[in-house]
Amino acid sequence: MANDLKDDKFQKLEDNYSQLEERSRTVQQIANEITKETALGRKRLEFLRSELSKYEAISKESPDLKKFLPADDSWLQQAIKDSDKAITGMMNAESTLNQTVTYVGTAVSTVSVVGSMAVSGVNLLTEKYPGSQIFCTYHLQDPKIVFDSTDSDAVSKLLEEYDPELEKERRGAWDTFFSNSSANHSQAAHSMRDVLRKLIRKHASNNAVKAASWWTWAESTEDGVSRKQRLRLLAYGATAEVSENELDFMTAKIEEFEESYDFLNKTAHGSKQTEVAIEGWMKSIEHLLLLILRRRKLSITPGTDKLTFTGIHP
């Protein structure tokens, strides 16, 4: 029964992705139609702007032509009114579509965190037990094709906007990973973990969390602030509604990162398999960073186009 329910959820998410893909094509078609109509309108307007005054001049000599010309400029005013409404509609559509892109991104990031983390673990086990031939024994698919991308441009853009210094450290982690240093992979993993830790510590300090209206003393903590509360502030802000399931997911993944980091260090021996596992582990952290920042972006202030991290700076 549990597997059936999980299969139903997999199918539901797959159906959602299919529907979004189909509807996005419809949106593209609508946008193409708008582009086509406006290009046609501009072309004809330019003609009228150039020629209409000439026709009016002719009508003074040949009054019969006047019957074919507009009596006043009310047609211009009506076209302006309709085009103003079109612009308003486009602006509203852009806002909605931008939010839709972010929602789609959070869904993809959630899936990516789970997938890349699981793949990283399998690669580490393959390194630890080379004789097990896990990929052959369990007929595993090659994950590289699916999880080779980390949406690096997306995480770079959001992290650069939020905290340029941390974005610099994130890029530095990858520079280290691809360097010729003998300890490049372990150092890179440590640096990437630090980016996540610093993001939480720097932008969800004790004082900032305690200033939130929803804060209550967290049990089993020295200062009354839990990691989950820090994540809530970081991902949702001081006032936004919260998805408890997603918040629990983020919190659990960070704990898994800490546990898997220890296993990573014990298992890593510099082989190609270890390199692949560490790279996947680092990408998992990036996917979580992207999920946090995308979720935060959905708390954007209406009428602006910038992320608002109100109340989360220490």
Supply Rg.
28 Å
The number of helical elements comes to 11
Portion of residues within helices:
over 70%
| First-to-last CA distance | 47 Å
Assembly state of the chains shown: single chain
Q: Summarize the biggest pleated sheet.
A: none
Give the helix/strand class. mainly alpha
Main attributes?
314 residues, 2 domains, mainly alpha, elongated, 11 helices, 0% strand
Question: Can you describe this structure?
Answer:
It is a single chain. The chain has 314 residues and is mainly α. The protein is built from 11 helices and no strands. The chain has helices at residues 2-61, 74-128, 134-137, 144-147, 152-162, 164-177, 184-203, 206-210, 227-236, 244-267, 272-297. It is elongated.
Brief characterization of the structure:
With 314 residues, this protein is mostly helical. Helices cover 74% and strands 0% of the residues.
